[in-house]
Amino acid sequence: MGGTRVGLKAIDGEPLSPEAVRMLDYLRTRSTELDIAGIRERVRAAALELEKVVDGVPESDIRRRPVPNKWNIAEVVDHIAQTQIRSAEELRHLFAGRCPPGPPVYAALHTGAAAWAPWQELVEGLRSANHELIELLQSAPGAAEEHGVTARTILVVNRALPDGGTGPQIFPVDLDWREYALVQRLHLLDHRTQVRKLRELL
Fold first, then answer.
1. Which pLDDT does position 1 carry in this prediction?
2. pLDDT tens per residue across span 132-184
3. So what's the pLDDT on residue 140?
4. Is the dihedral angle over the CA atoms 86, 88, 91, 96 positive or is it negative?
5. Percentage of residues in the chain with pLDDT exceeding 90?
6. Which distant-in-sequence residues (6+ apart) come within 8 Å of 55 by Cβ?
7. For the stretch 111-138, what's the b/e string if a residue is b when 16 or more beta carbons lie within 10 angstroms of its beta carbon?
8. Which of 126, 166, 171, 183 has CA 20 to 30 A from 120's CA?
9. Distance between CA 56 and CA 188 in Å, rounded?
10. CATH architecture for residues 39-149+179-201
11. What single-letter DSSP state applies at residue 9?
């Protein structure tokens, strides 16, 4: 599933880390075990977890930056909203039996709105984007199953570094619709954890 994985490398040319290989194995295994209802429910549950964490953030904290050069909470929320909308568009293409056109959804996608938009507007954008993706997963995959189309996807995984620290590894891979949808679940959960940590630091 998900196209060929032979010879995959990170964007810097390095071999995939054990953490990246485990992520791909997880996607491959779970995508064969779950039907569309199971995938949808897991994405929905992850979205609700993130939204619940975001709901508890005081507006006075959303643009405070407890870690220099790292995202604040407003930027995380904007990033998820923008990513979910693009991901829904790509799933529509997959469900219609087409590979999504244009560039993939790049890591760190966000807009300038995080710097000025009202907090409620950012939160509503997040909820609306999550709803769009979950509603789309109510539909049958249609031609995606028949044609075996895939979407080029940019994945980011935290891996152990030789110095004992951790750092991101970024790599492109072609995913089928099931794997692609499960990536959105992992993405939501990662940023749920990020918002929780930011709230603790604040």
1. 45
2. 999 999 887 766 666 789 999 999 999 998 888 889 999 999 999 999 999 99
3. 73
4. negative
5. 70
6. 123
7. eebbeebebeebbebbbebbebbbebbe
8. 183
9. 17
10. Up-down Bundle (1.20)
11. B
DSSP 43: H
Q: How many CB atoms sit inside 10 A of residue 98's CB? A: 15
Give the count of beta carbons closer than 10 Å to the beta carbon of residue 80: 29
Q: Which of 20-29, 33-42, 98-107 has the lowest mean pLDDT?
A: 98-107
Residues 6+ away with beta carbon under 8 Å from 75: 110, 114
Please say whether the beta carbons of 193 and 22 come within 8 A: no
Count of residues in the chain: 202
Q: Which of 161, 155, 145 is nearest to 5 (CA)?
A: 155
Cross-strand bridge partners of residue 170: 156
